[in-house]
């Protein structure tokens, strides 16, 4: 539905809408269990095409585990996202508060290289290499 003539979509409207979408998504992931078959979420297109896990595969399961306080399972699902996303968020917040450009080219290249390396490592035979004291 188009806004009426004379109305403006402000940053506040966008922020409220984004917060509602994020809250709804987190509520769904927290209440439903992405570890079980039948979880209503589209499959990863990269994995569907190649059979390999992308850098984000396991991110929904990781989010579910974090929401339920199971940090060990979250690390197992996707340690790259578990560690990297909070670090990226803090780094972006600091740069934003300082009035700096959020994503310089060097940062984008670093993130891309890290994602490619993580994709290769997580698809190596025998991964994850979990020590026996962790698994029992």
Automatic annotation (TrEMBL):
<keyword id="KW-0472">Membrane</keyword>
<keyword id="KW-1133">Transmembrane helix</keyword>
<protein>
    <submittedName>
        <fullName>Membrane protein</fullName>
    </submittedName>
</protein>
<feature type="transmembrane region" description="Helical">
    <location>
        <begin position="12"/>
        <end position="31"/>
    </location>
</feature>
<dbReference type="InterPro" id="IPR021215">
    <property type="entry name" value="DUF2752"/>
</dbReference>
<feature type="transmembrane region" description="Helical">
    <location>
        <begin position="101"/>
        <end position="121"/>
    </location>
</feature>
<keyword id="KW-0812">Transmembrane</keyword>
<dbReference type="Pfam" id="PF10825">
    <property type="entry name" value="DUF2752"/>
</dbReference>
<feature type="transmembrane region" description="Helical">
    <location>
        <begin position="71"/>
        <end position="94"/>
    </location>
</feature>
């Amino acid at each position: 539905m188009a806004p009426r003539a004379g109305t403006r979509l402000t940053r506040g409207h966008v922020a409220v809408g984004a917060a509602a979408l994020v809250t709804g998504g987190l509520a769904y992931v927290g209440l439903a269990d992405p570890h079980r078959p039948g979880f209503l979420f589209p499959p990863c297109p990269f994995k569907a095409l190649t059979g390999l896990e992308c850098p984000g595969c396991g991110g929904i399961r990781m989010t579910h585990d974090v929401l339920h306080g199971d940090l060990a399972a979250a690390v197992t699902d996707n340690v790259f996202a578990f560690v990297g996303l909070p670090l990226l968020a803090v780094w972006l917040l600091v740069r934003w508060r300082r009035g700096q450009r959020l994503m310089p080219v060097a940062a984008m290249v670093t993130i891309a290289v890290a994602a490619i390396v993580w994709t290769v490592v997580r698809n190596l035979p025998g991964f994850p290499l979990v020590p026996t004291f962790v698994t029992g």
